[in-house]
Amino acid sequence: MAMVAANLANFRPMLVRLTLLAPLLLLGACAAAMPGYTPPPFKEKSKLAQPQEGGTMREGHYEMSDNEKSLDCKRLTGSMQIAISRMRDGHGLDDRSAASSAMQSMVPSVFGGSSAGADRQADHARERAKLEAYNRHLASKNCQTVDIEAELVRPPEGPKRY
Predict the structure, then answer these.
(1) Residues in the chain with pLDDT < 70?
(2) Phi, psi for 127 (deg, rounded to 5)
(3) Which residues touch 146 (CB under 8 Å, ≥6 apart)?
């Protein structure tokens, strides 16, 4: 019993020391920080990691932006493959009813928002013109072009199994 009382007597000063240690550590951490110091970024941002500026459609022809023109052959071909797979996957969709088309075009004008995707034919024409412009640009850079017709006719691939 005397031993338990001796341990309790030593326990209280230990708690006081630990309680004083925490504010001292926090104060030391605050003193170590320099005013106005900002740590450097972990890694530099790549210009290709940010969204690219798109081109414009004029009179049925797609005009590439400067960012698109600066892409190398590999990235341009990859963008074409993505656009082709999007077009191929959406090719067999049923036409929408007139009511749903009207609602999709009316809701953004009333509540705000984007009406992108409301006109499938316009989106398809834009993607097709973009693919043709990319193909012309690949040919001007002496890169291998993509057979757009053959790629669009080919059935979509199923999910890959690894």
Answers:
(1) 1-11, 31-35, 45-50, 90-98, 100-118
(2) -60, -40
(3) 77, 80, 81, 84, 131, 135, 138
Which amino acid is it at 81? Q
Q: Is residue 2 in some structural domain?
A: no
Whole-angstrom Cα distance, residue 89 to residue 124? 12
Q: Containing domain of residue 126, as a range?
A: 55-92+117-156
What type of residue is 115?
S
**Is residue 37 domain-resident?**
no
Tokens linked to 148: 């757009």
Residue 83 counted as domain residue: yes
**62 occurs within a structural domain:** yes
- Segment 80-112, tens digit of pLDDT: 999 998 888 765 555 666 676 666 666 666 666
Cβ atoms of 160 and 89 within 8 Å: the answer is no
Q: How many domains, the chain?
A: 1
The CB density around residue 138, as the number of other CB atoms within 10 Å, is 18
DSSP 65-118: -HHHHT--HHHHHHHHHHHHHHHHHTTTPPPPPHHHHHHHHHHHHHH----TTS
